[in-house]
Hints:
Layout: H1 2-7, H2 10-37, H3 45-69, H4 79-106, H5 109-115, H6 118-130, H7 138-154, H8 167-190, H9 196-217, H10 227-253, H11 256-260, H12 265-277, H13 285-302
Helix pairs in contact: 2-5, 2-10, 2-12, 3-4, 3-9, 3-10, 4-8, 4-9, 5-12, 6-8, 7-13, 9-10
Amino acid sequence: MRSSSFFTNRKVxxxxxxxxxxxxxxxxxxxxxxxxxxxxxxxxxxxKLVFAGWRFVFAGLVLLVxxxxxxxxxxxxxxxxxxxxxxxxxxxxxxxxxxxxIGLAYATGVKSSIMNATGTFFSxxxxxxxxxxxxxSFNKVLGCVxxxxxxxxxxxxxxxxxxxxxxxxEGFVVIAxxxxxxxxIYGKKVxxxxxxxxxxxxxxxIGGLALLLIGFATGGTLTGFTLESVALMVxxxxxxxxxxxxxxxLLKYNKVSMITVFNFMIxxxxxxxSALFLDERFLEWKNGAALLLxxxxxxxxxxxxxxxxx
Length: 310
């Protein structure tokens, strides 16, 4: 009861949701810097999977150890429940990040952070067919159109004469966003019967282990361990464990629409931090226009409509 009242407090929701978005936004420049520090080439997909695998395995273990120390039911899970968590880990973590990590290697951090916001629109479209009380509305349709226009704008060249889009780059980032949206809807259902920290810990560990196995099996390695690279890995581990667990808890205790409205902050933080830490060009008209359109689209999709008068 106390947890419910705490995590539904408006100020707490605002602070925690904003923190999650800031952490996820910082992942874009952090991952690209990680490729450089660990000497991972753009076309070295197996090593990227090993890099991602270690990140999520350790993130999951951090949460499971925390859950065990706080006497949460880490191992008291039924076979059916553990199967559901395994499926969630293999989709939300493994499959999604296979596409995300590859896409980020072939697209700039600025463009990736904006295009990954398409996940909000996918969630709206999927919810229309899954939940009877979450149908498409005028605002939602308009928001999806506006958001996808923003995604199109960021991929045009400066002269608007060519469309800069590749399947391995921007295409894989969009696919990753779709996979995450579908998995998150499934995870919302599973979280109603499992402790949020335990759920997040297991799904990250299982998903990370799958990434490790695939990466090692296809010849991936991880070298270049220095104080700087290890510190970056620790940051990514803590980022994942904190952001995913907090977001899962917020979704458990609040309406989905109330939490997803904060998603507009992710491309904002991702774009600004990528420009700051990766020396990527941000002050281009197309990036600014795309960012405004994406944020406006997400606001339209997630804003609460007034009930019709009778």
